[in-house]
Target: GNAT family N-acetyltransferase
Amino acid sequence: MSDLVRLRPIASKDLDLFERLREDPAEAGELDFFGFRNAGTVRRQWAEGGFLSESRGSLAVAAVDDDRFVGEVQWHQVLQGPASPCWNIGIMLLTAERGKGFGKRSQRLLAEYLFGTTKVNRIEASTDATNVAEQRALERAGFTREGVLRGACFRAGAWRDMVLYSILRAEVVVAG
Model:
């Protein structure tokens, strides 16, 4: 299982699929499409320095066997107290690549990467309460279900409940 995917910086060869994943309702799917955005944003971000910064980032999820882009993982900083930053992570996989175990492995690799390269103690993720597959992937990746955030996310014309998960530094063995 550990050799299914790897994480790597998003390359220019990935931009067409990366853009499609974020902007095509059919590709994003009903749980990841939040409305049309400013066309060209992905390419502008790429031209202005890519998708990595001190407070957020995106990496490609690539199949190990042929390095093809199968999706992306992203993170951004949130504060749980004035001096208590943590990361909130998310994942989007191409429709054809879902259900193959990529989500579980990618989210675990991202947690290992973030704990290995930053000082945070907590990484959290939330998913739509109806997204049972993502909830299972997070649990299999070592995340703990913390509870339901009622009416927390607006999508498809309605406020949706989200399920919150977390993993702590002490729960992850970081290689290296």
